Amino acid sequence: MDQFISDFLVGKNFQQLATNFVPNYTTLVSKVGGIISPENLDRLQGALKEAKLKDVADIIEELLMAAENAPLDVAVIGESGTGKSSFISALRGLSYEEEGSVSVGVVETTMKKTPYRHPKYPNVTFWDLPGTGTPNFHPHEYLEMVEFATYDFFIIISSCRFSLNDALLAQNIKEIGKKFYFVRTKVDNDLYNEEKSKPTSFKRERVLQRIRDNCLANLSHIGVPEPCIFLVSNFDLDDFDFPILEETLLKELPFHKRYTFVLLLPNLSDASIEMKRAFLKEMIWLDALKSSALSFIPFMACFNGFDLPQQEKCLNLYQSHFGLDENSVKEIAKKLGMSVEKIKSFTKSLNFWLLVKDESIVARAMKCVECYCSVNGGPPSTAFQFLKTYFLHLKFINTVADDAKILLHKTLESISLRRCQRDGSDCLTE
Ligand SMILES: Nc1nc2c(ncn2[C@@H]2O[C@H](COP(=O)(O)OP(=O)(O)OP(=O)(O)O)[C@@H](O)[C@H]2O)c(=O)[nH]1
Ligand SMILES: [Mg+2]
């Protein structure tokens, strides 16, 4: 990746750069793909081949802007009490009691469509839609009433069997060209009940498979062919099918909406942390290419200087994306029963100065810039500052993501230890 940016800055052979562009991009992006559609990749490659560098910069700018500003509206539908509000709260990273959390309760609480903005990402809205459980339900009228066209996709929730109304709704959603996903909630309850009632023969995987088979049979019976079903517990989003649901949604979203979606994923599994890491790396790589392209155009401001307060702000933003901002770290410390200072002792991303003084960043930037200067001559300072910033941001992303994984595992270990202590079981034998 460094080599591609360095070759770009030298800018000798754009034909070759155009050929290398797609393989470099492909190795960089997440396993579900990135923010650039195949058509836009072709556009970029074409502009690069003809050395139309203003076009290259403009296309990248257009893609970055679209990704950063894409609104996302998610509709959550289901009968009363199935866990719609709990699902939305969990996705928004709020506990049930927190302010701004969706109203949750054992009586019918969702009577009209209610928007819930994501607390961190205001362009994301979850819509808690009114229940579909009335006997004279008309899916077409219902979809009109809730203004179906405004949503990116629909989540249809059930906590037991999906109803005929759910199936009718799914058919209508499909007809209007939108995507829907079936989510079966409260599987933690099913497991708990099954274990209590059949303690000797209980097998977790067998129970989950039975729930899945039941849902499949039930949905095919009421006319949904090959339904996609995700088993979840709103109290344990890192468990069951939630990670697969995340991946599926990400893969099926339009390219420019993926970045918005990946940022809002709760940092509850290695997979979601890795996807976030890949998308953020893709964004800064594209931004670096844009600056490199602009550097060939006279009188264009292309390289920003190295501004320390700006860098600190950038680190804080990455910390917030990965749930390691000041407040979140305090929360984690409380959960782990340790001090924030202790957390700082085994993480690296919470110390801005340690990261910014890293000698290897200067060495990497120097290596790239030497190549640039040998071809372009002149003082290397602007290109050097630009590369130093790029490598520093890369370091920020990687260090914060690594720390997010370390803290996630410590939290999971502590939860499972507490469970063992509560149940009086021997954890070592698990
Ligand atoms: N065990 C378990 N309980 C859940 C889960 N999801 C929701 N609940 C509980 O189920 C009850 C109903 O949840 P809500 O989120 O209010 O359901 P809703 O679909 O929004 O209900 P209405 O607003 O009335 O339509 C609450 O007591 C929740 O705590 C889950 O995954 N597992
Ligand atoms: Mg509700």
Automatic annotation (TrEMBL):
GO terms for cellular component: endoplasmic reticulum membrane. Residues 70-252 form the IRG-type G domain. Gene3D superfamilies: P-loop containing nucleotide triphosphate hydrolases (3.40.50.300). It comes from the Eukaryota. SUPFAM superfamilies: P-loop containing nucleoside triphosphate hydrolases. GO terms for biological process: autophagosome assembly; cellular response to interferon-beta; innate immune response. GO terms for molecular function: GTP binding; GTPase activity. Keywords: GTP-binding, Hydrolase, Nucleotide-binding. PANTHER family: GTP-BINDING PROTEIN, INTERFERON-INDUCIBLE GTPASE. Belongs to the TRAFAC class dynamin-like GTPase superfamily. IRG family. This is Interferon-inducible GTPase 1-like. It comes from Odobenus rosmarus divergens. The gene is LOC101378986.
